[in-house]
Specification:
Strand content: 25-35%
Helix content: 25-40%
Number of domains: 2
Low-confidence stretches: none
Largest sheet: 13 strands, mixed
CATH topology of the largest domain: Aminopeptidase
Structural class: alpha+beta
Length: 333
């Protein structure tokens, strides 16, 4: 195994031709590990010392480890995934299926070498429950004498879609189904669903999304700092250019009352974030109505899943979500 270690963002350009192809052949092919997502995240939110490690078997790249070394308090340095944390719901290493053992060993060799920046701890977040990072990598780290801890982090409720919206409604529990049908019937007059499909006005559409998101709750208002606003604008533009952005609005009399920023990726609609005007249009339940219509659209478009992403909010289960568990792997020397 030969390593090529990049310490600048030029790595994203150097590996652009192989990145997504390798991801498609890895254990966990997710939007948040794509070249476009990782590059945009680092451009806007990246901090510390970047290291992207390409692992080659002969002329073929069989592994990519996008990590960075981030200073913490008391002079401590932690190693984390590019993308961790806050806005990337799934993360992992990008290793060719079947080559994980060799790639993990090569990564550990790098971390133990003088070529790696000084570090005190590892913390790899948002790892899906079946990933070999939680089993094989953890075992190899323990073999080095390092203290390893695996902690439950969050859940991502996922809805497996049936062939029709009528079949979907019949899947729901009786009370939830009747309540949703009532809300859908009520939200018909002077109500329209629109999508951001014009690149020239995408910036204004994202501004409207941010305005509604900040209006939703005090927590979302606090989350949407100027830095996060820049990220949402950047990732919306990136995903729009990739054909993966689904920025939807529910309008009442032409006024935008609710919004969802979703992404589509390989048969799945990812429900990323939302916003709504909480007072003026509350009687219409605009957020729930919009999400139900987006589930209906996902079925019509032939999608296989709706992934509600991180969080155990009750509405995700009322709409049929089933949990996938995420963990954080931590280690100290």
């Amino acid at each position: 195994m030969q390593l090529e270690v990049f310490d600048s963002p030029t790595a994203f350009d150097a590996l652009a031709d192989v990145w997504d192809d390798l991801l498609a052949r890895s254990i966990h092919d997710t939007l948040f590990l794509t070249h476009a997502w990782q590059r945009t995240w680092w451009q806007v939110l990246g901090d510390g010392e970047l290291r992207i490690i390409a692992m080659r078997d002969g002329s073929s790249v069989v592994g990519i480890a996008p990590i960075f070394f981030e200073p913490h308090s008391l002079g401590q340095v932690n190693v984390a995934f590019v993308g961790c944390k806050e806005v990337s719901d799934y993360l992992d290493f990008i290793f060719l299926r079947g080559c994980e053992a060799e790639c993990f060993a090569a990564l550990i060799d790098f971390l133990r070498s003088a070529d790696a920046p000084h570090w005190d701890s590892l913390s790899f977040c948002n790892v899906i429950e079946h990933s070999p990072t939680l089993s094989l990598f953890a075992e190899l780290l323990r073999g080095c004498g390092w203290k390893v801890h695996i902690a439950f982090e969050d859940v991502c409720p996922i809805l497996e879609l049936p062939p029709s919206f009528e079949a979907y409604l019949s899947m729901l529990e009786g009370k939830a189904r009747r309540e949703l049908q009532r809300k859908l019937r009520r939200a018909t007059e002077d109500v329209a669903i629109t999508f951001a499909n014009d690149g020239a006005r995408l910036g204004q559409d994202v501004d409207d999304f941010i305005r509604l998101m900040k209006a939703s709750t005090p927590e979302k208002h606090a989350f949407m700092t100027p830095r996060m606003e820049r990220f949402f604008h950047a990732i919306a533009r990136t995903m729009f250019e990739q054909g993966r952005l689904q920025l939807a609005f529910l309008e009442v009399g032409g006024a935008r009352a609710a919004t969802y920023m979703n992404f589509t990726y390989k048969g799945t609609t990812l429900v990323y974030n939302s916003g709504l005007e909480p007072s003026q249009y509350a009687y219409l339940s605009p957020g729930q109505v919009l999400l139900a219509r987006l589930i209906e659209k996902a079925i019509a478009d032939g999608q296989r899943y709706v992934d509600f992403l991180q969080g155990d909010e009750p509405y995700k289960y009322e709409l049929g979500g089933k949990d996938t568990r995420l963990y954080t792997l931590s280690a100290t020397r």
